[in-house]
C-alpha cells in the first residue's frame, strides 16, 4: 500500500485570504471552462485553491469524477453548508430545501420530490399532455412569425419549461403572453444573476463594494418568489382534498399529515425552499439545453435533416412524437446525447464536501474539503471519447442503430446527489426537440452567419447570442 501524497498542487496561497482572487475569478468568469483549462495546464488535472480557510479541490477526468460521485459517492455526499456563500443564501431563503440541504432534511425533501415526479410526471400521460400543450404554444408562436429572425430562442424555451414545472408544483400553467409568467421568469433571472456558492464576498463582505457579486438582486428575487409560493401554499391548505391530489404541494400536505405523529423532517420552510430549488434548478437548465440543441442543428444542418428523416419515417405526418416513440428514434436520441455531451449546460456539479478524511487519486483529502467534480472534463476525456471536440451523434450508435456509450454521458451528475429532475428533463428535451424538428426547418438567418459554439458561464453555461429562423415544413 502506498502512503497518500499530502500536498495537492495549486497556486501559492496567502495568509487569511488563501487564493481569494483566483476563486472569485472562477466564480464570476464567463469562461469558466477556459479558466480551469489554464489552471490544469499549470497544476495538473487535480488541483486546489483556498477560499480563505476553505480548501477547494477540482477533480477532473472521467475516472476520478466517477470515483468521487458514484463509486465513493457516500464519502462526498454533503454540500459545504458551512461556507458563507451558501449560509447567506440559505439565510435569505429562511432554511434549506434540497440542493443545499444535508442529512435527514435533504433525504426527506428529495424523496418527496422524486415521488412527485413519478406520480405526476414520468411515464404518466398527464406530463406528456402538459408538455404537448407547451410545444403547441411554441409552435403557434413560430408559425406566426414563420421564417422571420429570432434572436432570443431561449426565452421561448424558458416559458415552456417554467410552465411544465409550474403545473407539477402548483397544478396549473400560464398562457405564454401572461404578465405573471413574464414576472416569474424575470424573478428567476434575478436569482440566477446573484453570486454562486463559492462567492468570496460571502467570506469578506467588504468585497461587495468592489465585486460584482450582487446579493441584493438575488435577495429581492428570492423574496418575491417566496411570497408567490407562500400564497399558493396557503391556498392549497384551504382547498386541500385528500381524495384529489393535484400536485407537489398537495403531496407534501399528505406526507405532512402522515408524519405529524412522528418526528418529521417535513416543515413549511423545507417545502417552500424545495419549491424554490425545483423551480430554479429545473427551468433554466432545461431551457438552456434546448437553446443549445437548436444552435447545433442550424450549424449541422445535415444532422438536422437526418433526424427529420428518421422522425418522418417513424411517425409520419399528422401526429405528435410521443415518449413511447423514443426507442424507435435512435438517431434523434443519439443527437440529443451528443448535444448534451458537447454543450455542458452544467460544466461542474454543485459543490460537494468530504464527510470524512479520505483520498482521491492518492492525494490526502481532509474532512470538510470542498470538492468540485468537472462534468465537462469527463465529456472531453480522450481516454473515453475519440476526437472529443467533434460533433458526431454516431458515437452513441452501434452498427444496428442501437444506443451505446450511455454510461459515459453524465450531464446530470451521478451517485446519491444525481439530479432528481433527470427523467423530467430528458422527457422535455426529447419531446420539444423532436416535435419542433418534425414541424419546422431551422436554419441560419443568413447562410454566411458565423456561429460561436463556445459557451458563456453563469450558474449554467449558455450559448453565445445567436439568431435563427424557423420555417414550416
Ligand atoms: C437539462 C436539464 C438539467 C441538467 C443538465 C441538470 C443538471 C444537474 C446537476 C449537474 C446537478 C448537480 C448534481 C451534483 O451536485 O452532483 C443537479 C442538481 C439538481 N437538479 Fe438538475 N439538471 C437539470 C434539470 C433539472 C430539473 C428539470 C429539475 C427539477 C424539476 C432539477 C432539479 C435539481 C435539484 C433539486 C438538484 C439538487 C439535487 C441534490 O442536491 O440532491 N434539475 N442538476
CATH superfamily membership: Cytochrome P450
CATH-defined fold name: Cytochrome p450
Task: State the helicity in percent bands.
Answer: 40-55%
Counting DSSP E segments of at least 2 residues, the number of strands comes to 10
- Give the integer mean of the pLDDT values: 90
Instruction: Please give the CATH class.
Output: Mainly Alpha
The end-to-end span amounts to 64 Å
CATH architecture group name: Orthogonal Bundle
Work out the count of structural domains. 1
- Tell me which ligands are bound: protoporphyrin IX containing FE
Q: Could you tell me the radius of gyration in angstroms?
A: 22 Å
Family: Belongs to the cytochrome P450 family.
Binding site for heme: 419
Pfam families: p450
InterPro entries: Cyt_P450 (IPR001128), Cyt_P450_CS (IPR017972), Cyt_P450_E_grp-I (IPR002401), Cyt_P450_sf (IPR036396), Cytochrome_P450_fam2 (IPR050182)
Give a short overview:
Keywords: Heme, Iron, Metal-binding, Monooxygenase, Oxidoreductase. Helices cover 49% and strands 8% of the residues.
What does this structure look like?
This protein is 49% helix and 8% strand. The protein has 473 residues and is of the alpha+beta class. It has one domain (19-472): Cytochrome P450 (Cytochrome p450, Orthogonal Bundle), CATH 1.10.630.10. Strands 1-2-6-3 form a 4-stranded mixed beta sheet. A two-stranded antiparallel sheet has the order 4-5. Helix 5 (103-120) packs across helix 11 (268-299). The longest helix is centred in the middle third of the chain and has 32 residues, at 268-299. The structure holds protoporphyrin IX containing FE (HEM). Protoporphyrin IX containing FE binds next to helix 11 and helix 15.
Amino acid at each position: 500500500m502506498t502512503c497518500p501524497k499530502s500536498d495537492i498542487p495549486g497556486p501559492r496561497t496567502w495568509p487569511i485570504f488563501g487564493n481569494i482572487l483566483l476563486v472569485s475569478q472562477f466564480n464570476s468568469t464567463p469562461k469558466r471552462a477556459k479558466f480551469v483549462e489554464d489552471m490544469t495546464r499549470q497544476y495538473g488535472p487535480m488541483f486546489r485553491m483556498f477560499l480563505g480557510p476553505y480548501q477547494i479541490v477540482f477533480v477532473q477526468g472521467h475516472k476520478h469524477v466517477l470515483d468521487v460521485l458514484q463509486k465513493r459517492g457516500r464519502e462526498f455526499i454533503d454540500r459545504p453548508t458551512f461556507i458563507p456563500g451558501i449560509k447567506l443564501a440559505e439565510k435569505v431563503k429562511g432554511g434549506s430545501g434540497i440542493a443545499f440541504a444535508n442529512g435527514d432534511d435533504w433525504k426527506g425533501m428529495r424523496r418527496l420530490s422524486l415521488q412527485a415526479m413519478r406520480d405526476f410526471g414520468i411515464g404518466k400521460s398527464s406530463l406528456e399532455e402538459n408538455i404537448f400543450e407547451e410545444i403547441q404554444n411554441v409552435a403557434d408562436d413560430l408559425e406566426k412569425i414563420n421564417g422571420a429572425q429570432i434572436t432570443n430562442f431561449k426565452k421561448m424555451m424558458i416559458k415552456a419549461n417554467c410552465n411544465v414545472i409550474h403545473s407539477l408544483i402548483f397544478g396549473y400553467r400560464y398562457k405564454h403572453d401572461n404578465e405573471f409568467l413574464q414576472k416569474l421568469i424575470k424573478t428567476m433571472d434575478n436569482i440566477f444573476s446573484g453570486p454562486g456558492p463559492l462567492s468570496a464576498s460571502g467570506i469578506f463582505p467588504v468585497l461587495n463594494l468592489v465585486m460584482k457579486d450582487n446579493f441584493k438582486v438575488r435577495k429581492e428575487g428570492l423574496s418575491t418568489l417566496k411570497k408567490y409560493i407562500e400564497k399558493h401554499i396557503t391556498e392549497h391548505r384551504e382547498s386541500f382534498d385528500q381524495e384529489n391530489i393535484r400536485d407537489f404541494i398537495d403531496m407534501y400536505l399528505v406526507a405532512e399529515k402522515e408524519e405529524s405523529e412522528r418526528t418529521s423532517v417535513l416543515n413549511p420552510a423545507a417545502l417552500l425552499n424545495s419549491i424554490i430549488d425545483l423551480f430554479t434548478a429545473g427551468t433554466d437548465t432545461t431551457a438552456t439545453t434546448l437553446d443549445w440543441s437548436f444552435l447545433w442543428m442550424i450549424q449541422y444542418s445535415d444532422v438536422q435533416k437526418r433526424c427529420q428523416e428518421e422522425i418522418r419515417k417513424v411517425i409520419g405526418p399528422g401526429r405528435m412524437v410521443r415518449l413511447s416513440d423514443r426507442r424507435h428514434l435512435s438517431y434523434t436520441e443519439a443527437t440529443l446525447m451528443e448535444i448534451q455531451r458537447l454543450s455542458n449546460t452544467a460544466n461542474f456539479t454543485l459543490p460537494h464536501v468530504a464527510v470524512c478524511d479520505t483520498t482521491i487519486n492518492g492525494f490526502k483529502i481532509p474532512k470538510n474539503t470542498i470538492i468540485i467534480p468537472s462534468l465537462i472534463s469527463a465529456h472531453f476525456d480522450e481516454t473515453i471519447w475519440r476526437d472529443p471536440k467533434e460533433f458526431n451523434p454516431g458515437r452513441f450508435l452501434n452498427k444496428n442503430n442501437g444506443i451505446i456509450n450511455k454510461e459515459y454521458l453524465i450531464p446530470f451528475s451521478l451517485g446519491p446527489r444525481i439530479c432528481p429532475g433527470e427523467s423530467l428533463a430528458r422527457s422535455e428535451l426529447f419531446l420539444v426537440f423532436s416535435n419542433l424538428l418534425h414541424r419546422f426547418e431551422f436554419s441560419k438567418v443568413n447562410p454566411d452567419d458565423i456561429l460561436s459554439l463556445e459557451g458563456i458561464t453563469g450558474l449554467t453555461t449558455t450559448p453565445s447570442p445567436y439568431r435563427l429562423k424557423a420555417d414550416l415544413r
